[in-house]
Amino acid sequence: MSKLAILLWATTPEQPDLCAAPFVYATAAAALDSEVEIHFAGPSVKLLVPGVAEQAVTSGGKKVYAFMREAANLGVRFLACSMAVTQHTSNGITMIPELSGVAGASAFVARSIAPDWKTLVF
Q: What CATH number does the domain containing 115 carry?
Protein backbone atom coordinates (compact mmCIF):
# COMPACT_ATOMS: atom_id res chain seq x y z
CA MET A 1 0.00 0.00 0.00
CA SER A 2 1.29 3.47 -0.84
CA LYS A 3 1.46 6.08 1.91
CA LEU A 4 1.17 9.86 1.67
CA ALA A 5 1.69 12.48 4.38
CA ILE A 6 0.58 16.03 3.61
CA LEU A 7 1.78 19.00 5.65
CA LEU A 8 -0.40 22.11 5.84
CA TRP A 9 1.34 25.17 7.23
CA ALA A 10 0.52 28.01 4.80
CA THR A 11 -3.04 26.85 4.14
CA THR A 12 -5.30 29.05 6.27
CA PRO A 13 -9.01 29.86 6.39
CA GLU A 14 -8.22 33.45 5.41
CA GLN A 15 -7.37 32.15 1.90
CA PRO A 16 -10.08 29.54 1.19
CA ASP A 17 -9.08 29.03 -2.46
CA LEU A 18 -5.69 27.74 -1.31
CA CYS A 19 -7.34 25.32 1.11
CA ALA A 20 -9.10 23.10 -1.41
CA ALA A 21 -6.06 21.59 -3.17
CA PRO A 22 -4.53 19.64 -0.26
CA PHE A 23 -7.87 17.96 0.46
CA VAL A 24 -8.43 17.19 -3.23
CA TYR A 25 -5.00 15.53 -3.40
CA ALA A 26 -5.65 13.64 -0.16
CA THR A 27 -9.04 12.46 -1.44
CA ALA A 28 -7.50 11.32 -4.74
CA ALA A 29 -4.75 9.39 -2.96
CA ALA A 30 -7.23 7.76 -0.59
CA ALA A 31 -9.46 6.82 -3.53
CA LEU A 32 -6.40 5.05 -4.97
CA ASP A 33 -6.19 3.00 -1.75
CA SER A 34 -3.30 4.95 -0.25
CA GLU A 35 -2.90 5.51 3.46
CA VAL A 36 -3.11 9.31 3.87
CA GLU A 37 -2.39 11.67 6.75
CA ILE A 38 -2.80 15.43 6.79
CA HIS A 39 -0.61 17.19 9.35
CA PHE A 40 -1.92 20.62 10.37
CA ALA A 41 0.86 22.96 11.54
CA GLY A 42 1.09 26.69 12.19
CA PRO A 43 -2.06 28.69 11.50
CA SER A 44 -3.56 25.88 9.43
CA VAL A 45 -4.80 24.34 12.71
CA LYS A 46 -7.52 27.00 12.70
CA LEU A 47 -9.25 24.86 10.06
CA LEU A 48 -9.81 22.26 12.80
CA VAL A 49 -11.85 24.64 14.98
CA PRO A 50 -15.58 23.97 14.59
CA GLY A 51 -17.23 26.44 12.22
CA VAL A 52 -14.04 27.91 10.78
CA ALA A 53 -13.73 25.70 7.67
CA GLU A 54 -17.52 25.78 7.34
CA GLN A 55 -17.37 29.58 6.91
CA ALA A 56 -14.42 29.47 4.48
CA VAL A 57 -15.90 29.28 0.98
CA THR A 58 -13.87 28.85 -2.21
CA SER A 59 -14.47 31.02 -5.28
CA GLY A 60 -16.28 27.99 -6.73
CA GLY A 61 -18.81 28.26 -3.89
CA LYS A 62 -17.80 25.10 -2.03
CA LYS A 63 -17.06 25.21 1.68
CA VAL A 64 -13.59 24.14 2.75
CA TYR A 65 -15.20 21.88 5.34
CA ALA A 66 -16.93 19.96 2.52
CA PHE A 67 -13.51 19.19 1.01
CA MET A 68 -12.28 18.12 4.45
CA ARG A 69 -15.26 15.81 5.05
CA GLU A 70 -14.78 14.15 1.65
CA ALA A 71 -11.19 13.32 2.55
CA ALA A 72 -12.09 12.14 6.05
CA ASN A 73 -14.89 9.95 4.69
CA LEU A 74 -12.28 8.07 2.65
CA GLY A 75 -10.16 7.44 5.74
CA VAL A 76 -7.72 10.36 5.57
CA ARG A 77 -6.38 11.01 9.06
CA PHE A 78 -6.17 14.61 10.33
CA LEU A 79 -3.33 15.25 12.79
CA ALA A 80 -2.80 18.54 14.65
CA CYS A 81 0.50 19.90 15.88
CA SER A 82 0.00 20.46 19.62
CA MET A 83 2.31 23.50 19.62
CA ALA A 84 0.31 25.08 16.77
CA VAL A 85 -2.96 24.35 18.57
CA THR A 86 -1.62 26.17 21.63
CA GLN A 87 -0.47 29.15 19.55
CA HIS A 88 -3.41 29.55 17.18
CA THR A 89 -6.55 28.46 19.05
CA SER A 90 -8.28 29.24 22.31
CA ASN A 91 -7.28 27.24 25.35
CA GLY A 92 -9.44 24.13 25.83
CA ILE A 93 -11.36 24.53 22.57
CA THR A 94 -13.03 21.44 21.12
CA MET A 95 -11.91 20.49 17.62
CA ILE A 96 -13.90 19.08 14.69
CA PRO A 97 -14.83 15.38 14.95
CA GLU A 98 -12.65 14.51 11.93
CA LEU A 99 -9.48 15.20 13.95
CA SER A 100 -7.69 11.88 14.49
CA GLY A 101 -5.09 13.06 17.01
CA VAL A 102 -1.93 15.06 17.52
CA ALA A 103 1.45 14.73 15.85
CA GLY A 104 4.30 17.19 16.12
CA ALA A 105 7.11 18.14 13.78
CA SER A 106 9.08 14.99 14.51
CA ALA A 107 6.17 12.83 13.31
CA PHE A 108 6.07 14.55 9.92
CA VAL A 109 9.85 14.51 9.62
CA ALA A 110 9.77 10.78 10.35
CA ARG A 111 7.26 10.34 7.51
CA SER A 112 9.38 12.41 5.13
CA ILE A 113 12.51 10.32 5.69
CA ALA A 114 10.76 6.93 5.76
CA PRO A 115 11.29 5.11 2.46
CA ASP A 116 7.70 3.89 2.28
CA TRP A 117 6.11 7.36 2.63
CA LYS A 118 5.78 10.23 0.14
CA THR A 119 5.10 13.81 1.25
CA LEU A 120 3.47 16.97 -0.05
CA VAL A 121 3.62 20.42 1.56
CA PHE A 122 0.99 23.14 1.19
A: 3.40.1260.10
Cα R_g (the chain), whole angstroms: 13
More confident residue, 64 or 92: 64
Residue 104 CB contacts under 8 Å (≥ 6 apart), including other chains:
81, 82, 83
Q: Which of 78, 85, 98 is nearest to 6 (CA)?
A: 78
Per the structure, the count of domains in the chain is 1
Alpha carbon distance 27, 114 (integer Å): 22
* pLDDT tens readout for residues 90-106: 877 899 999 999 999 99
Domain with 95 in it: 3-121
CA angle 82, 77, 30 (to 5 degrees): 150
Residue 98, phi-psi category: left (phi > 0), alpha (psi -120 to 50), beta (remainder): alpha
